[in-house]
């Protein structure tokens, strides 16, 4: 059974940067579609970015040009580099693994505030 563990969240000032990591246990990570989602209080969960097994990426319009998703298959890890953070980026960020089934991490809190 694949398990996902996110890290890297925290409190950052507007304009700052954070790098989230999601480490996956188990095999077949390199074949999975990996995504980052976020959910702010009172809002629905939304896709932030995803990356396919071949490295194709997809971003929400709200983060294009500011966030970068990447993966290291040797480390079974997907990253989300977040730059130029805004207060509206505040949310719980969750990692998602899709390969025949969908698996979620527990999430990491990102708070952008002065």
Unreliable stretches (pLDDT < 50, length at least 5) are none
Largest sheet: 7 strands, mixed
What does the oligomeric state look like here?
A: single chain
What is the arithmetic mean of pLDDT? 96
Assess the beta-strand content as a share of residues.
over 45%
Terminal CA distance: 40 Å
Structural class estimated from helices and strands: mainly beta
Helicity level, as a percent range?
under 10%
Q: Could you say which overall geometry the principal axes of the C-alpha atoms support?
A: globular
Helix-strand sequence: EEEEEEEEEEE
Radius of gyration, in Å, reads 13 Å
Strand elements, count: 11
Number of helical segments?
Answer: 0
Describe this structure in words.
- It is a single chain.
- The chain has no helices and eleven strands.
- The chain is globular.
- A hairpin with a 6-residue loop joins strand 4 and strand 5.
- The chain is mostly beta strands.
- Helix content is 0%, strand content 51%.
